[in-house]
UniProtKB/TrEMBL annotation:
SUPFAM superfamilies attached to this UniProt entry: Nudix (SSF55811)
Domain of life (superkingdom): Bacteria
Alphabetized InterPro entries for the sequence: Nudix_hydrolase, NUDIX_hydrolase-like_dom_sf, NUDIX_hydrolase_CS, NUDIX_hydrolase_dom
Protein name: NUDIX domain-containing protein
Source organism of the structure: Oscillatoriales cyanobacterium SpSt-418
Amino acid sequence: MTSAEPIKVAIAILHSKQNFLLQLRDEIPTILYPGHWALFGGHIEPGELPEQAVQRELQEEIGFVPAELRLLDCYDDQQVMRYVFCGTLEVGLEQLCLGEGLDMGLATIDEIQAGERFSPKTGRFHPLGIPHRQILLNYIKTIR
């Protein structure tokens, strides 16, 4: 018996100085980390390269793709293989159009370390998705 191949996704750390763009995921019980803050991105379609997937997903989810995205690392667990890209958020939040999720916002390093962030749209705190928080914490170590 063989185990199922992990889902492949491409996600992006988009930063503006020391703040990081996060998406509050929909509260749909069938998705991973419903109601959690996470990085923008999504599934890699068959025949699609991770670089193409992250650009497509960012365009669909926020209507913005940075001029430069670089592959940082690959994180995998039993469920998901995450291709993690990094780029600069060159526009203000008001120029982004949230196409998926409940909310979006710029998280501070303190919020990432605390593992939760307030959403003005829901009026409550939500946790950061475990793998997304760890990816951000690892990245923060490299920029300090």
